[in-house]
From TrEMBL:
This is NIPA like domain containing 2. Keywords: Membrane, Transmembrane, Transmembrane helix. Signal peptide: none annotated. It is a multi-pass membrane protein. The keyword Membrane applies. It comes from Sinocyclocheilus rhinocerous. It holds the Pfam family Mg_trans_NIPA.
Length: 139
C-alpha cells in the first residue's frame, strides 16, 4: 500500500509540474512546452510514479491497489490550490472526502489475499466458451 501511495503522490506532483510548465509557456508565448526541462522532469516523475504503482500490484491484490489512485486526485487538488493558486470549491472538498472514505472502506474490507494464477488457468480461460463469446461480441 505504501508503494502505491508513494507512486500516486509522485504522479500528482508530476501532473502539477506539467500544468505549471504549460501555463508558464503560454503566458510567455515562447517555445513549445516539450522543450522545457521542467516539463520533462514532470514526465520522468510520472514514469517513476507509474512504475511504483506497477510494482505495488506485485505485492497486493488489485482490489487494494486500484482504489489508492484517489491519493493522486487528492494530492493534486491540494498542490494546485497551494502552488498554482487555483480555487477550491465546496464540491471539491466533498468529492475528496467521499473519495477518501470510499478508499478507506475498500482497503479495509477488501480481501487481503489474491488467488494464485497459473499458466494452465489462463490457457483454459482463453479457450472457454464464455471468453470466446465475449471476444467475438467485442470484435
Amino acid at each position: 500500500i505504501c508503494i502505491a501511495v508513494c507512486g500516486n503522490f509522485l504522479i500528482s506532483i508530476s501532473l502539477n509540474i506539467q500544468k505549471y510548465t504549460h501555463v508558464r509557456q503560454s503566458q510567455r508565448g515562447t517555445k513549445p512546452y516539450y522543450t522545457s526541462r521542467l516539463w520533462w522532469c514532470g514526465i520522468l516523475l510520472m514514469g517513476l510514479g507509474e512504475l511504483g504503482n506497477f510494482a505495488a500490484y506485485g505485492f497486493a491484490p488489485a482490489s487494494l491497489i486500484a482504489p489508492l489512485g484517489c491519493v493522486s486526485v487528492i494530492v493534486s487538488a491540494v498542490i494546485s490550490v497551494v502552488f498554482l493558486k487555483e480555487t477550491l470549491r465546496a464540491s471539491d472538498i466533498l468529492g475528496g472526502a467521499l473519495a477518501m472514505t470510499g478508499t478507506y472502506f475498500l482497503v479495509t474490507f477488501a480481501p487481503h489475499s489474491s488467488p494464485h494464477v497459473t499458466a494452465n488457468m489462463v490457457e483454459r480461460s482463453l479457450v472457454s466458451w464464455t471468453f470466446l463469446i465475449y471476444f467475438v461480441s467485442l470484435l
